[in-house]
Amino acid sequence: MGSLTLKQFQSPLLEPIELYIPAGHCTTLSGPSGSGKSRLLRALADLDPHQGEAWLDEQEMASFSGPAWRREVGLLPAESAWWKDRVGDHFPHVDNALLSLLDLPPNAMQWEISRLSSGERQRLALARLLGNMPQVLLLDEPTANLDQNNIDRVEELIAEWRRQHKTAVLWVSHDPDQQRRVGEESRHIADGRLQVIR
């Protein structure tokens, strides 16, 4: 299980942030394009410059190496990276049940990256991230390229995942209806400040 705590945490474009996401809870994040949402998630994954403190349960980010922190605080970017030709080469462990929940067949591991649709890339990237069993999920518009059936699948999967694994989730979404469905709390970035919606 993992909770996420930010104390005077500051990333580019944003004023210092105070935020607590309990284990098993989801906070949604919205804001206009260019307001700093993705950069905040990248900073929380220790990929971009930042100041202040971030804590996973009782452990501060500074006590981890970058790779060790990212194993526990996993980022799903809006555009996933694929550096080998075949899907399966990106998966050290394959969970066929997880693939099935995302409407992906077991033979998806044999697919060439070049033949994937944007929606398939997005769902496979989520499966890859969850396979690492992070304690915190940083999700940057994880359903942006999906049809409604697959949006429903992803929302249900993440809801069950965080209940089962007590995972804290920070979910970037521009859809107010989705924000209400998936999150206990909502935050909005405006003029460099993190504001409470609910």
Automatic annotation (TrEMBL):
**Key word Repeat present in the record?**
no
Q: Which domain of life is it from?
A: Bacteria
CDD domains named in the record: ABC_ATPase (cd00267)
Check the record and name the InterPro entries matching this protein: AAA+_ATPase, ABC_transporter-like_ATP-bd, ABC_transporter-like_CS, P-loop_NTPase
Instruction: Keywords in alphabetical order, please.
Output: ATP-binding, Nucleotide-binding
Identify the residues that the record assigns to the ABC transporter domain, covering every copy. 1-197
Tell me any Pfam family this protein matches: ABC_tran
Q: Which molecular function terms from Gene Ontology are attached?
A: ATP binding; ATP hydrolysis activity
Plastid as UniProt keyword? no
- The name on file for this protein is Putative ABC transporter ATP-binding protein YbbL
The scientific name of the source species is Candidatus Thiodiazotropha endolucinida
Q: What is the lineage of its organism?
A: Bacteria, Pseudomonadati, Pseudomonadota, Gammaproteobacteria, Chromatiales
